[in-house]
Structure formats: structure tokens, C-alpha cells
Amino acid sequence: MSNNSYGKAFTISTFGESHGPGIGVVIDGCPSGLELDMDKIRLEMQRRKPGQSRLTTQRKEEDEIQILSGVFEGRTTGTPLCIFIPNENQKPKDYAHLEQTFRPSHADFTYQTKYGIRDFRGGGRSSARETAARVAAGAVAKQILETAGIKILAYVQQVGFIQVEKSYQELNLELTESNDVRCPDPETALQMEALIDTVRKEKDTIGGLVRCICTGVPVGLGEPVFDKLHAELGKAMLSINAVKGFQIGSGFSSLGMRGSEHNDEFYSENGQIRTRTNHSGGVQGGISNGEDIYFDVAFKPVATIMQDQNSVDADGNPVIVEGKGRHDPCVLPRAVPIVEAMAALVLVDFWLRNRMTKL
Amino acid sequence: MSNNSYGKAFTISTFGESHGPGIGVVIDGCPSGLELDMDKIRLEMQRRKPGQSRLTTQRKEEDEIQILSGVFEGRTTGTPLCIFIPNENQKPKDYAHLEQTFRPSHADFTYQTKYGIRDFRGGGRSSARETAARVAAGAVAKQILETAGIKILAYVQQVGFIQVEKSYQELNLELTESNDVRCPDPETALQMEALIDTVRKEKDTIGGLVRCICTGVPVGLGEPVFDKLHAELGKAMLSINAVKGFQIGSGFSSLGMRGSEHNDEFYSENGQIRTRTNHSGGVQGGISNGEDIYFDVAFKPVATIMQDQNSVDADGNPVIVEGKGRHDPCVLPRAVPIVEAMAALVLVDFWLRNRMTKL
Amino acid sequence: MSNNSYGKAFTISTFGESHGPGIGVVIDGCPSGLELDMDKIRLEMQRRKPGQSRLTTQRKEEDEIQILSGVFEGRTTGTPLCIFIPNENQKPKDYAHLEQTFRPSHADFTYQTKYGIRDFRGGGRSSARETAARVAAGAVAKQILETAGIKILAYVQQVGFIQVEKSYQELNLELTESNDVRCPDPETALQMEALIDTVRKEKDTIGGLVRCICTGVPVGLGEPVFDKLHAELGKAMLSINAVKGFQIGSGFSSLGMRGSEHNDEFYSENGQIRTRTNHSGGVQGGISNGEDIYFDVAFKPVATIMQDQNSVDADGNPVIVEGKGRHDPCVLPRAVPIVEAMAALVLVDFWLRNRMTKL
Amino acid sequence: MSNNSYGKAFTISTFGESHGPGIGVVIDGCPSGLELDMDKIRLEMQRRKPGQSRLTTQRKEEDEIQILSGVFEGRTTGTPLCIFIPNENQKPKDYAHLEQTFRPSHADFTYQTKYGIRDFRGGGRSSARETAARVAAGAVAKQILETAGIKILAYVQQVGFIQVEKSYQELNLELTESNDVRCPDPETALQMEALIDTVRKEKDTIGGLVRCICTGVPVGLGEPVFDKLHAELGKAMLSINAVKGFQIGSGFSSLGMRGSEHNDEFYSENGQIRTRTNHSGGVQGGISNGEDIYFDVAFKPVATIMQDQNSVDADGNPVIVEGKGRHDPCVLPRAVPIVEAMAALVLVDFWLRNRMTKL
Q1: Rounded to an integer, what distance in angstroms lies between the CA atom of residue D347 and that of residue D216?
Q2: Taking the model in full, what pTM does it have?
Q3: Which CATH class, in words, describes the domain spanning A5-357?
Q4: Of C11, C20, C28, the CB nearest to B68
């Protein structure tokens, strides 16, 4: 069953485990004729890869991409585009102690019970390494969207209780890449970095919020009633490891508002129908309305901590899970390109589907 | 394209507009052999229908259901089960003034632009009336889940700033249906009702939060990596009209926690592996872990208010949208059965899909 | 599971049993803006309906269509279009004797075993009455294709051993509707009619071949590698009741040819690349090449005969199945609009999907 | 769009071009817990590979398989199983002359027109090399089916006008692999081989018929009304390169029979309900009835001949396509494992889907 596929028009299917030969993705439905910029794909891979700063895991993975199909003389051919990312730097023996142990708040127990077997090395299929394949596919999607003037920019809005106080409109989003934490507000970035440093020293982890802004989205993307634009964005984000919540536009803060305050008044500007406010977050009735799309993705503190924890083995016997290995104290900086990738995959899918709307 | 379908194993397809002949749903993949209890379906329809209390719209719709196929001598046959709910009490002329007007924060503008045409009577396809079909299908799903010991109970957790302070474990969820607002905490219910009354008198609307609890879910439901259980729950909830946010387990509150605090410690109890806390919300790695599944759904204040509002017509000319008709000041009470229905549809889909997991 | 749906872009889902309330179809993905000609739909229903001539069953069914959704002021809105055809003239007691009996070469035994229950009245879901829904949906598809200059014409090529000797190019296909058997060769038609009369008097049934021609199909329809145009045509045809074989272009006769004879030579005519022969049947590599698409569909003699037959009941006990009721001695005349409908559904699906091919 | 995927429960997605890095397949939905026998996969690859006898192309390709994911310690894990087959022995310069030329009855013209670009080296995506991925996936499917006692055996029934006169029941199907042409009737095999030799010397090609027998299939596989067992078999077979026709059971020969002759009488034998004849080919109403499933697949003479042919280039100018390279004079011997693979993929998909039928 296509459990490992996403998208109806631009369909990606990912495969691979964290400690097998590699991770890959097949894109079926990539339009033909795109001049594929490999450097742009590599750039996104760099943004996601481990070991990129002191804030992230110190594992080194180069994440070299190999195009196995679907590109000819630099252009997409309309046939399935397969990208493969070989695993390297594997230390399987690091994981031998996990064969019989269920790490707290990991997928060990549920995978073992559901499938009756699991690749216990580093999480196997449930490892966030799978998101490397998403980022590669998303980098292709982004290039398609660029041809339509659609841009996607995410940043770290919050780490623990430290958050950016400014709205996204008040920020210079080009600064996002200027610091290791990927927060476009330099002062807040410094505080976040300090907090992550503290947390790492405490051998603990911490969560946060990624905010994502999509600009240039034309009116009409999204397919009610089930495949509403924000419903698919929600699913796509919630399918990322460690995500516990999603909100679009006013989101949970809409609870404190009255309808008369929340409604976005229409007006006309240069022949274009716009809204004066954007509590809707750029989506009305499940369809983009031409305003900026913005949404938040909540990441829990990651489950792998450098402390001993109580747990059980497969027989239910008490065990101690030791904290060891090289892991992220906070995934937020590396989550930014993943959120962008998933947003790009949602938008490119609807952008293609929208071609079939009218006679 | 199956934009109006949900579910891969238990697939529902809804059709119908608010002011056409009726609303319906086709269920493809309903297992054969279910003794269908029509009263249980009718009960859910009653919980959703307008005019059920002074807190909701005063429109009267009986929402009689007709089974058009798939049931023989009281049992499901495994063929498509179509349920049709004729519309009644239609007053199309009430909507003539909307032909050329885009109501703020409704789907009028986006539908008109996307499709080049729209049934402007009462929202047409974008009307929340479509959820009647979901509730009918969900009532079938619930009956299947009951055979497996799975129960779904939702309630109103918050209206405006008034919220239930107790956790769901501290509440008697059987009290949910004891008041019009569907809040199992009687005192809070009274406050919510008073607030809704106030808001209605102010010709305004207000939003809130529905909390949903699924008990008896076996380990193993959910299909990583994209069709994670909570990702599908998120999509399903976000596809309901007026929903702006979703969180599962600790959700957004996980941001304030450290990993060492957030992790759910495993232990063994009577041969069953359990977790001492449940910040995960019953889902780990996208798969149910046997604990209660609980999540929140944020509803914005509905867009239809009884006040005049500035807007534009299709040509961009300024118009005044008058506030008239019979509408809900707060959809939360009626949203409870809709949330339950969508949760049931997600769970029954995964419950069937899980049959294919192991050799 | 979407077992009762066909098409990825223009998705139809049929529901209904032969002796329940009615038969219906939901079309999801019908483009907005089509001026729907109801008379054209009714005409196709007339071509399929029973009792239209002495060659078919004498059951009278009017097959009135009801549009339940998706059309507003005569035009499609892009929302699901539901068409319902109430059943009438039901005589369920005619079928009481079948409750415990498996009719030879019908679906009684397989449905009963697979589902553990079946609506035994007149075949229930397995009845060819379900094709009424396909014809209705196909009539919508045809109208869309007409806007693109695509036409679909089928006719009866063979009944028993009597076949049209001329190629389709030598025939005037406008004569197809001029006789009850739907054969555009008037002399052959007379022979076919005589044969069917004979077969009916013998209380027996007979099969035959429908040939279908699609003209005006642009280059580019069909989606390799699995969704090849002729593969989908094959599936669509084989999903029609009583079909046992399918061939496209040279089909089975290609076995007697050498490659040098079979290959279709390209040439250029008025700037268009054409083929001198068309053994390919208008499809190369699974994609339409602009030439006529033509294919054959083999229908077995229908299983319901007016003779007593040996069979067993559900317990395996020998029983006699009596030949009674009102049935077709030969379904070929009524199969013509069904073949056309399924061809239209395949083509419209690919026509829409092709919009997503190129950047 | 999932054009390159097949199957709803056991979903395969193939990728790769004939002269790119390789060909691969991702299986999503492979049940966990299968002890994967790599030798059985290799055996099937050997049966399909070029250069295996003088009857086939003399290209040498080893078709080594690499498991990239989804298998752990020899067993399937329920996660996507990716198999990759690197291309070797590529001589791209052999194809430079095809850049601007459309080979007759190949997919060059349709791919170029549909996509605006094509990998012209050896057919690229439209090459029958893609079937290597199908055979690999089919070899996994076969192993699953074996656990349920289901076997699939195909053989060459006809080459040109030379055909096996015996029914499949009269043949010893274990002899199929005893000769290069894969015909279980030794005498006919010799005639076929002689014919193929002749055709090759004439620098021409010839087609034929593969017959396939599936035994041990339980009652209940197949999902009406669109996903009928024989409809999916038809689609699967027609999606194989060079296939022009499909028939099941009596097939086209049913045209010469009366219903009273064609109907398969039920009887009971040792508590099992059986049919005395099997004109139905093991499928009734789209569902397997427990009898042998048998069907025929018609292959045209392959388009690549060793003769000069007239054609045009992309601008419509006349060109001569030279006959060169190493190609099959008759694909039938190598088509046998491909037909078996596709049949296995259809059956395993329905075998899994059938688990969801009953409550």
C-alpha cells in the first residue's frame, strides 16, 4: 500500500533505512522539461545534514545525491526521477544494545509490535534520516514552484520558551541562514543558541516551533473537501518526525477572537481582490486566496537524550537505556529545510492538480 | 480526482451542496457482515443537526437518512454503501444577494476564482452541511470499531477563553451529552453557554476547542512514513470547516518541556507494555501504542455574523454584506459529533489496513 | 477501498444493486464550466435500457436520471456530480428461488463465498444493471471529449459466427443506430438479427464482438509504464459484465505477421507526422499517436438461459436452476453504448492527466 | 502521478531507463516476516535476461540485483523494499543516430511529442528493459503466494502460426524450462525454434502467444466492480511491451458457443463446490472461483528489425532507419517470466486486499 508515498500529481515514494545501503526517493509525475539545478538540491541537503554546526549532532554525513533516473542531458524527462543518497559513517555495533530494548518515546516498541520485526540500528525506517529523501524531492519541487513565482521560507520561531516577538512581516527572512539556529532575528537567535548549548550540556533536549511562509501562491490551489490546502499542509507537517502540532493563520489564537474581529475584509487593489487582514493564513475554504500562506509546526524535544532512562525489553523486563551516541539537542535548526521541503511538495502537487480544474 | 474522497481501505466519497437536492456519501470498502444499527446513525445525525438547542442555528433540518445501496436484510454486503440525506427547508431566495458578493472569510471568492462558477446558495459545496455526510459515514465506522472495542468520545474543551481545567481523565465523559454545549464539566458548561448567549446577542460568533479521546485502540494502527496515525488525524480534522489548528498529546505545550521530562517511560503491567506518562498522545512513530489517543481541534469563530460587513463583488466593487439568516453563534457543540466521525473514519481505515501488515 | 471507482483524474464511483432503491454514480474531477446537455445523457440511457427492441430483454425500465449534485444553472461546478437512476419494475419475489441457489456462470457462488452474504435478487451488485451508472457517467465524459474534437463510435462487429467483413473505414458508422442490432452493415445486421431470433426461440444465448473506434484523439494520451492507454482500455472493457477478451489494433492477428509487415511506417503530411498503416491501433508505447484508436471487445453468451440447468445450493446439494424471467438472448446491441461509455471514461481521464505532463 | 506504480495493497513503483544508471523497483506494502530467498529472485532474472540462448538477443546483461531497503537479517520488515539493477554493457554511441529519428512502431514519436524530450538511447524509459524491475518484484510476489499454495506457470503457446495443440492440462508444464523457447511440448518447441531461426536469418521478427496458468488460487480474489480479477490481469498484461491482446478462459472462442454450452455447471466434490467445465477461466463476476485461472497474452512481432526502414525525423523529413544492434527476433521465450511476474503481482495484490473483505 502506498503508505510511503505522498502526493497525487507529484507523487514521491521514499525508501531506505538509516543503517542500510541508503535512503532514496522516486518522484512520479515530475513534469518534463525542467532544467534541474543540482547545486540547489545539494544546498538543501547541506541545510539538513548532521554535523553542520555545534548546535546539531556531530555525526558527519555528506549526503551525496545520485540521480538514478528521469533526467536526460540535464532536464527532466517526465519519467520517474529517482534520487539515491548512500548511507555512510555507519556504526551498526553502536546499536547492538538496542536489539532487545525499547527506547522511550521512540518507535521501537510500536514497530516491533506492528511488524513483528524491526531494523533496530539507529531507528531503521523510523529514523529522521528518512527526511533526507524528502528534502531532495522538495528541492526539485521548489525549482518547479520557482518557475511560477512561488517561494517558501521557513525559520525557527521558538525554542523552548524563547520566541521571536516580531511578526514575519517585520523580519528580514534573508537573515535566517546567517546564524546556526536559523532564526532571522539575530538577538533572539543568540538567546536560542545559548539555550541549546545549555540543554546540550545538561544532556537533555528541547523542542520548538518552525514558522513557514509561502509567497506568490496564486488563487486556486487546494482541492476541497478533503484535500483542502491546509489539511494537506497539516498532514505533511505532522508526518515529519517529532511534530506534535500544526496551526495555520490565526490558529489556536483564533479562540480568543470574535468573528467580527477575525473575518478578513475583502478590498480591491489594482484590479486584484485582496484581504486587509490575513487571519485565514492565505487559505479560505481549503483553497489559496492569493495572500501569504503562513503556518506553525510544533516539534517536541527529541526523544534521544544523553541520560540513562528506565524502560523495558521485548519481554517486558526492566532495562536501563543508556544515553550515548551523537545526537541533536534540538532539531529545530535542521527542521527548517524539512518543513520547507514538505511545504513545497504540497504546493507543487496542488499546482499541478489545479491544471485540471476548468474545462 | 478523488478530492472528495477520504480513506484508502474504508473509502468515503461525499457529494452534494447545501441547497441542491441533498447531501450524500458512498462508502467503498465497508466490510461485509455488519448488522447495521440505523438508530445509531440517526442518533449521530441528531447530534449534528441544526436547531437542536438555543445555542445553535435555529434552522430546522431533520436530516433523514436514506440507504440507497450496500445493505441487504439489515447487514452490510461489502458493496458500496450509499447514504443520502435530502435537503429540506431550503430558501434559495435568501441567497440571491450573494450571487455577486464575496462574504468575508468564506469560500465564495476562492471557489469563484478557482472554478469560474459557484453555487452561491448558502455556500453550496463549501457549506458545513457537507459534514452531515461525514457524520453518517462516521456512524457506520463507529459501529465497526465497537466490534473491536474501540471507542471515540469528544467534548467541548474550550469556548473563547473559558476552558475546562480538568484533564480528560478527571472528567466523567458520560456527562458530555447532558448539556447543550457538550461539555462534560457542568460548571464550565454553564459558563460556556452564557458566553455563547452573550455572543449571539452581540450578533457575533466565537470559536473554541474540541478535545477527542480514543480508547481501546490496539497497538499497531498507523502506516508510516507518510500515513502516520496522527498525520491522518490532523488532515481529517483540518478538513472540517472552520478548523485552524490541531495538536496531539503534549502538542504545542511540548515546547516548554525537556526531553527528559517529555519522554514516556515504558513499564510492564500484567504482561502488557505500557507507558507511565502519555505525552505521546497514544502514538509513537506514527503508530498507536495502546495508550489513549487524545488530541485537540481548534475552531475559529465562524465567518457568518449578524452584522454588516465591508466586502467586494466579483468585479472588485465595494459592497456591504448584510448579516441575515439563521446561523450558529458558535459551532463547537455541533462540531463534537463531526470530530468524532472523522476520528472514526481515520481509525477504521487504519484498522482495516493493519490486516495487511504481516505475512 | 476504491474497488468501485475508476479513473485517477476523472474518477467515477458507482453504487447500487439491481433490486435496491437504485443505481448511481459520483463523478469526482469533472471540470467546471461544462454546459451539461441532459438530452445527450438521456439518449445514451435509451441506447442501453432494456426493452428497446425485440432483440433485447422485454423488461421495461425507463432509467430516468436524477442529478443530485455538481450542476448549477445547467453547468458543472467542479464539485462531485452525482447521478442517480431509481430502480423500478422490481419483482423481488421472482428471485426468492435464488436465495439458496448458485446460477451457473453467474457471480452468485463467488459473491456468497467472498462476502459471506449477497443480495440474491437479480444478481444484486453483480447485475449488468450497474452499467447504467457507467453509461450516465460516460455520457458526461463524451460531452467533455466533444469539446476537444474526440469522438467514440462502437458497433456490433460479430454475433456468433456472423461478422462484418468490411473494415471500419469501409463502413458508414452513422448507420449503426439504424437497426436494432447496432451493426452499421445493413445486410449483416439482418443476418445477426435472424440469428438472435433463432437463439431466443431456442431459449439460449449467444455472444459476439463489439468494435470501437475513437477519432480525433490528439498525440499524447496515455501514461506509461503501467497506465498505458491500451492497458487502461483493456481493463475498462474487461470490467464490463460478460467480457472475455480484448485486442487493440492488429491484436491477435499480429501473430501471423512479421515485424517488417507489422511496423507502421511514419511519413509527414501537411506538417503532421502520420503512419501509413495502423497496426498499432493508434497507440505506441502506451501513448496515442494521433491515428484512429480501434479495438475489439469479446462478449461471451450471457449466462442466463431459459432452460433448466443443474447446479448446487450453498450446502452443495444438487438443484435445478429453472430458466425464467425476462432476459437478453444476446447483449451485444445493448453493449455498444456501454463500450463507448467506458472508452470515453478512459480517454477523458487521460485527456485531463495529460495537462500535467510538461512544465 | 502514480503512472509508474501498480497495485493498491502490494504497490510497485518502477524507475529507470535502459541506458541510465539502472532500473529499479520500490515495493510498498510487502508484508513483514517473509524469509526472502534471493536465489529465487536471481533465477527469475536469469529467465528474463538477454543473451540466454541463441533465440534471444545476444546482448549480455547480468542483471545483478541489489536490495537497497526493506530487508533486515534476511527477512522483509514491512517497510519499502527497493531492488536496484545497475545497467551495464551500455553502448550509448550506438544510439546517436536515433536522436533525430523516429523508429517505426516504437515509442520514439509519442514520447517526444508527449514530453517534449526523450532519452533516445535504446528506447530509454520505453525500453523493455523496464520489465527487469517487474520480474524482480514479481519474484518477491511469487514467494508470498507460495506460502498460500498459489502457483503461476506460463509457457509459449504459439509462435507465428505454430501452436501447441494440446490443452494445458495435457501438457507437463515442468518441461517448459527444458528448451530455449519455453514451450512444454518438445516437438512443437523444435518447430518454434526452427521458425525463430528462420526469422532471425531473414532479419525479421515474429510474435506469438504466452499462456499462463494460476493454480491453487482460493475462492474470493478480485474486487468488483472495476477491479475485477480478470480486468486487472488484462491491464497488467497489456502494460507489458509489445502486447496487443488478452483473453481469459474461453476468450474470443466464446463467440462460437451458445450459453447452454458455455455455462460452467456447478457440482459438489468432497464438500467443495466445483465447476465441471471451466470456460470462465477460474473467474466469475470478477472473483476467483477456485478453479484454475488461465489466460492468453498476444505479443506482436517486435518493432526492431535488422532491415532498413523508411521513417521521418522530428521535423518530418524522410529518413532511413538502419537495422543494427543486438535484438530479439522473437520475445516470446523471454516474455514467459514477465507474464508470470505480472500475474503474481496481480494475485498478491488481491490476496492482501481480500483480507479486508469481511468484518
Answers
A1: 11
A2: 0.98
A3: alpha beta
A4: C20
